[in-house]
Specification:
The complex is a heterotrimer of chains A (about 350), B (about 400) and C (about 300). Chain A is mostly helical. Chain A is built from 13 helices and 2 strands, in the order ααααααβααααβααα. Chain A is globular. In chain B, helix 13 packs across helix 14 (about 340-345). The longest helix of chain B is centred in the N-terminal third of the chain and has 23 residues, at about 5-30. The model of chain B is unreliable at about 1-10 (pLDDT under 50). Classes of the chains: A mainly alpha (about 350), B alpha/beta (about 400), C mainly alpha (about 300). Chains in contact: A-B, A-C, B-C.
């Protein structure tokens, strides 16, 4: 595989190799997908029964945590693609999250009724889903475009300059939204309908994880990893570094946008305060806790950091202190994170001296 | 051969996570069923910390006093009222979390809260969707009760408050040129600025400058310099006390000689601490005055002083009224069904509150009079009462 | 015209605040190549330490100048020690790890200080006592306060002192050596740990001084005040050329001016965007900043 990689370069990411041979179940893929969808639908019913209609007094509260955990997983997994796998440190993820949230909310708020009219013959649940699919598409597209616009100029930068530039872009996006009156401006955007259900969140979680996983094991993924390990060497190998970086960035942004859409249509209210760079930090903490570069780690980090604050709600003030201390200690004593190293096992130690 | 974290992922998302959640549900269940029969759960959310902290703290004092009184005299429907209070730090997005938690986790039958309109506007849809009545003591923006039929308020609304201050500025103070400095982060400030502008211009006055800031700003020099250039006779600052104090101070530093005017967002003991003498000779509209000789008010002020060793501000009085009206409605509803409470709240008529005679109209707003106060050396002196 | 001149004064006043914070930022970056996100929070700690000291001192010493000096020195010492502690316990263990590890730790330290302070001081804004009474001066219709003059004066003085210190003392020379090449400096017999700790100490006490001077000017202080100011000070440092002390001052003044002009003649809601816009433009077209020297990324 390595030789193939270097042979097909300079235009590596032109087509991903299709490796039918290694997927014995590939012929039954559709069966698998349908089965999984069916399973998810059943799970959705089960979750609804348990949490919302069930005998548990506090069911809806746990349902909310479940949904937020799912949204955080999408955010963490997608940020991990750029920060962990491609090694480009971005602190602007909240910006793309915001773009997705606001554009999709804009669409459903202003055109929701019209769109519903188009498929008014369908039952209400299907209408909701159709609307959400449109919203998700719009969110992903808008965030991808934003990612492209931000990525092309900034990804030439390296290390902390890139970090600070993405942070700057994230904040600029936020200030721009702050000045758009149609989405409530600085006062917040209320009146969004609730469309996100467990099914859709879980589905997007699965989609984001599989996409990233497949990407990682494709030739693109190897290009990403090569860039992370040594950008100059990767370039020398013929990888189109800028293009690969931008690609990773755009995909990552698109998923952040979808997470934003699910978030907007769950909380039904958006405020620019939820999308400051502190939100980006939070996602970074998730992936560093789980282990930079590890998808499983990103999932674990997101789940832990969604549940933990709720567990600590009783002493809420302490929770962020514990958070930050844990982050510092983990980075000092286990810089590879909880699950880091599982995916990076093959990686040789990076020799980076302080200059 | 390369990466295989899939095996670890599947159990995480679909097995371990639900298990974790289910486990904690089971743990939290069945703790308090015995006590449950004798209490009615009421929720309150407010800014106990943050830049509008005195709003939340004052309201909480009023609510506590009301509930204590009710519970001492036997409670409502033979049950004690139990309050669940959440802090939203003054942030609208936190208000949503707080109200969701009150409704979903604490299972309250009704919610009291917020002073800042933006926070109530953010959280009210949660109450509306869960069909839980929400009574706001002091959110004056008209949009609040437009959110739905479960949202009530016991204070006047900004179109009225804007008119009161416009009339006061034009007629009583004889001002003709006024500049506006509004907070773009607050629905309250934006709305009140507009209603003031409409009324002031209708009277024949002119708005000579329209500047803005964002809550949390500390430096207002640029905006105030622009305002100074057009030489207004008055500056209307419909913001919250933290920024208003700093604005007053910096306006004074810049030598801006204009009367400062504001709304009920000024009502806080902290205002004086921040703004100091720069605030002397400014005016603001409010819900009530502790100086009002009305015996109902004086009895309340007396009781409040005895309990907390301080003067009750308007937020305390409104918090007290809101809790009392809610308890009254639950009593009239006959049970704690949310729809019954809602129906009873909607028919609140001629309730003798501290902040006036409260009747809710068909839009679930209260029609009440406002007072104008003059601020001098840390004391807000009663100036006049304006009826709707 | 009068208004425009006043806006320039406002801009200089705001800019000198950014400049003060940027001085420390630029020093730490110069020596460790680390964006010390916690710097803005040390600035906040400085303001709070000053606040608590002045609560004890205010009115007791009788002399405003003496009081101000005590408050200032006290806060600078406390924050200098805090800065050294941060370096010792958070950054030193990972000095040889990839730079991003350090960056994440810096974020962690910043969050820790913010949330710790919220716990310790409460989240409500506090109001800094007027230890130096405000005096207004009027020049051709332009108002200038003594506090604004003090902030700008202190920023200028510190800049000159730091430049002298770095270029004309043995310790300063050692600092420059460490910033060029840590390992080579060590081989030359420089106690690099001590030098780095000292840099953090100086940088942090500068932040504390900034915190107090700013609080004199704009008396509202809260535990989150350092976030935006710190970030903008970093922008100022990058703008002027990171690692360059004169650049930090210049960057701060330009940034303050730009913000005030946007708020005064445009819309105040865009004032936060202008800083980041400048940052990005600078990063894209002249990443070494106005006064910085170009650097080639070493392999």
């Amino acid at each position: 595989m390595e030789t193939e990689l270097s042979n097909t370069l300079p235009q590596v990411p032109s087509s991903a190799p299709i490796r039918k041979r290694r997927r014995p179940w590939a012929s039954q893929r559709w069966l698998w997908i349908m089965g999984a969808l069916g399973g998810l639908l059943l799970l959705q019913e089960a979750v609804h029964w348990v949490f919302l209609d069930g005998p548990f007094l506090q069911g809806p509260y746990y349902y909310q945590i479940l949904i937020l955990a799912g949204i955080n997983i999408i955010l963490a997994v997608s940020l991990n693609l750029i920060n962990g796998i491609t090694g480009q440190f971005s602190i602007g993820h909240a910006g793309f999250f915001a773009v997705g949230a606001y554009t999709s909310a804009y669409v459903t708020y202003y055109f929701g009724a019209t769109l519903r009219g188009l498929f008014g013959f369908l039952p209400a649940v299907v209408q909701d889903s159709a609307l959400l699919i449109i919203a998700l598409t719009v969110a992903a597209a808008a965030s991808a475009v934003a990612g492209l616009l931000v990525g092309i100029p900034t990804l030439r930068l390296r290390g902390d300059y890139l970090a600070i530039a993405t942070l700057g872009f994230g904040e600029i996006i936020r200030v721009l939204i702050l000045n758009i009156d149609a989405v409530g401006g600085a006062r917040g955007f209320s009146g969004i309908t609730r469309l996100s259900t467990f099914f859709w969140v879980a589905l997007m979680v699965v989609v984001s994880i599989t996409t990233v996983r497949h990407l990682v094991s494709s030739s693109y993924g190897r290009a990403f990893a090569a860039i992370r390990e040594n950008e100059i060497a990767a370039q020398a190998m013929g990888i189109n570094v800028t293009r690969s970086k931008v690609l990773a960035f755009v995909i990552s942004s698109a998923f952040a946008g979808m997470a934003g859409c699910l978030f907007a249509h769950f909380t039904m209210y958006l405020h620019t305060n939820s999308f400051t760079f502190l939100r980006s930090f939070e996602i970074i903490i998730m992936i560093s806790l789980g282990g930079l570069g590890s998808t499983a780690g990103a999932v674990l980090g997101a789940v832990i950091l969604t549940i933990l604050p709720e567990v600590f709600r009783g002493f809420a003030e302490y929770r962020m202190v514990i958070y930050s201390l844990a982050l510092i200690l983990i980075m000092i004593y286990r810089p590879q994170g909880l699950l880091g190293g599982t995916t990076l096992k093959k990686k040789k130690p990076v020799v980076t001296g302080t200059k | 051969m390369r990466l295989n974290p899939k095996i670890r992922l599947i159990p995480f998302t679909f097995f371990l996570l639900p298990l974790l959640v289910l486990g904690s549900i089971l743990m939290s269940c069945g703790q308090n069923s015995a006590e449950e029969a004798n209490i009615i759960r009421i929720g309150e959310f407010g800014s106990l910390t943050g830049p509008t902290a005195t709003f939340g703290q004052s309201t909480a004092k009023g609510v506590d006093m009301a509930l204590e009184k009710i519970n001492q005299s036997g409670g409502v429907l033979g049950k004690q009222l139990k309050l669940f209070r959440e802090d939203d730090q003054g942030k609208p997005e936190e208000s949503i979390t707080a109200v969701t938690k009150l409704i979903n986790k604490d299972r309250v039958v009704a919610v009291l809260g917020q002073v800042a309109s933006s926070n109530t506007i953010a959280a009210a849809p949660v109450a509306q969707q869960n069909r839980i009545p929400l009574v706001t003591p002091a959110s004056t923006n008209p949009k609040v009760t437009e959110i739905g039929d479960y949202i009530f308020r016991i204070c006047f609304i900004d179109p009225f408050q804007g008119a009161v201050m416009a009339k006061f500025a034009y007629n009583s103070l004889g001002l003709r040129k006024i500049a506006i400095l509004r907070d773009v982060k607050s629905d309250y400030s934006m709305g009140l600025a507009n209603f003031f502008t409409q009324n002031f211009e209708a009277l024949g006055g002119t708005i000579v400058a329209n500047e803005s800031y964002s809550a949390g700003d500390k430096d207002f020099g640029a905006q105030l310099t622009t305002i100074r250039a057009v030489k207004p006779e008055g500056v209307f600052v419909p913001g919250y006390y933290t920024e208003v104090g700093l604005i007053a101070r910096q306006a004074n530093t810049l030598g801006l000689n204009a009367v400062l005017l504001g709304g009920d967002g000024w009502d806080s003991a902290k205002l004086w601490e921040i703004g100091g003498t720069a605030l002397n000779g400014s005016y603001y509209s409010n819900h009530y005055s502790a100086e009002d000789p009305n015996p109902i008010i004086q009895a309340f002020v007396e009781e409040f002083r005895a309990k907390y060793k301080e003067e009750p501000d308007a937020m305390s009085a409104l918090g007290y009224d809101a809790a009392m009206i809610l308890a009254d409605a639950i009593g009239r509803a006959g049970n704690t069904g949310a729809d019954n409470i809602k129906a009873a709240l909607a028919t609140t008529r001629e309730y003798q509150g501290i902040t006036g005679n409260i009747s809710l109209d068909e839009h679930r707003n209260a029609l009440k009079s406002a007072v104008v106060l003059e601020f001098n050396d840390g004391v807000a002196r009663y100036k006049e009462t304006v009826n709707p | 015209m009068e208004t425009f001149l006043q806006q320039i004064v406002n801009g200089l006043s705001l800019g000198s605040i950014y400049a003060l914070v940027a001085l420390g930022y630029t020093m730490v970056y110069g020596i460790l190549r680390l964006i010390n996100f916690a710097h803005g929070d040390v600035y906040m700690l400085g303001a709070f330490t000053g606040y608590y000291i002045s609560l004890r001192v205010h009115g007791f010493l009788g002399n405003a100048f003496l009081e101000a000096t005590v408050v200032m020195l006290g806060a600078m010492i406390v924050c200098g020690l805090i800065g050294m502690a941060i370096e010792r316990f958070a950054y030193r263990p990972v000095r040889r790890a990839p730079r991003l590890t350090m960056l994440i730790i810096a974020i962690g330290v910043s969050l820790f200080l913010e949330n710790g302070s919220q716990l310790l001081f409460g989240a409500d804004p506090k109001f800094f006592p007027q230890i130096i009474e405000e005096r207004r001066m009027l020049f051709w219709g332009v108002t200038i306060t003594n506090q604004q003059v003090i902030v700008l004066g202190v920023a200028l003085a510190l800049m000159v002192l730091l430049n002298l210190f770095i270029h004309y003392t043995r310790t300063g020379t050692a600092m420059r050596a460490v910033s060029f090449n840590l390992d080579a400096a060590k081989l030359m017999g420089i106690n690099t740990n001590a030098i780095i700790a000292l840099t953090f100490g100086i940088g942090s006490s500068l932040a504390a001084a900034a915190g107090i001077l700013v609080s004199l000017n704009l008396p509202g202080i809260d535990p989150l005040m350092g976030i935006m100011t710190g970030l903008k000070a970093f922008v100022a440092a990058v703008l002027g050329g990171i690692g360059n002390i004169t650049g930090a001052l210049l960057g701060g003044l330009i940034l303050g001016m730009a913000e005030v002009m946007v708020a005064g003649y445009g819309s105040s809601t865009y004032r936060d965007a202008i800083a980041f816009l400048i940052l990005i433009v600078i990063l894209l077209f002249k990443p070494e900043g106005i006064l910085g020297k170009g650097q080639v990324e070493k392999v």
